[in-house]
Design brief:
Length: 167
Amino acid sequence: MVRDHQQSHLIDILCVLVDKGVQFVVAGGAAMVLHGIQRMTLDLDIAVSPDEMNLCRFISTLNQLKFIPRAPVPAETILNRERIEMLIREKNALVFTFWCPGEPYKQIDMFLTRENSFDDLVADARKLTVCGRTVLVASRGKLIEMKRRVKPIREKDLSDIQALQNH
């Protein structure tokens, strides 16, 4: 990933998450950039391992980075699978969003649904090196699958699919 002023906060977040031992797989626009595709993205889409200790490390790390949930619910909500299932069912939530109120462009979307789960994405994730750290990144095939599931599909998703297939 090229380190420039637009991407640097994403690199910083990835490095801190790895350094704190959080298990996750990068997806979305950041994954496309890590695969070498030129694309603008400001947020970080990740699937986090549902292991309770891992989720606690994730919450602790986000607290240190001054991230808070965008929705008016505590970060610890992600520790309760029943609450997550309720958010998916009642609010049609696909992600749990964290952001930095002081720097609103910093946003992390944690996938909630099973089809975008850590277990689903880690199976064929690529190990890429970012600033000397190993980062798991969703495979091109999984990224294409995820883009095709977006309803309604957007022009951006179609161009992302084409870029992933042609690169």
